[in-house]
């Protein structure tokens, strides 16, 4: 069966405005403001959905971090209750390189995370702080720089 030929309009008009602009100013901007040579010490991951699905998405990230060549710990601060020793084993994480820490007494998870980062005994400190204010984020960044560590905050939705 043959369909009548209908002339297709080129989609080029959608991009004409972009293509008409010279690239020189864009390239000049990139060259004049290169990326910072200082490594970023704070990252945040937001996961939404069923708890089991979120943990399945998180497993390869934590597995990779647990196998890091750095001799220091991967530290998990106040992880959700569903992140158990059995889950760590089933997800294939190197449990010999992981510390699970819970805040004690009046200490908050934020304070414990900052302390773990500042001490520098962990290559990465993973926290579950939600919400995280800009002041709290700056505290984590400062502590991570002091301890030459990475801070990864996970927000579960």
From TrEMBL:
Q: Which Gene3D superfamilies match?
A: P-loop containing nucleotide triphosphate hydrolases (3.40.50.300)
Q: What lineage, starting at the top, does this entry show?
A: Bacteria, Pseudomonadati, Pseudomonadota, Gammaproteobacteria, Pseudomonadales
Q: Name one GO biological process term.
A: negative regulation of cell division
Protein name (record): Cell division inhibitor SulA
Q: Which Pfam families match?
A: SulA
The gene from which this protein is expressed is: sulA
**Species, as recorded:** Pseudomonas fluorescens
Q: Which domain of life is it from?
A: Bacteria
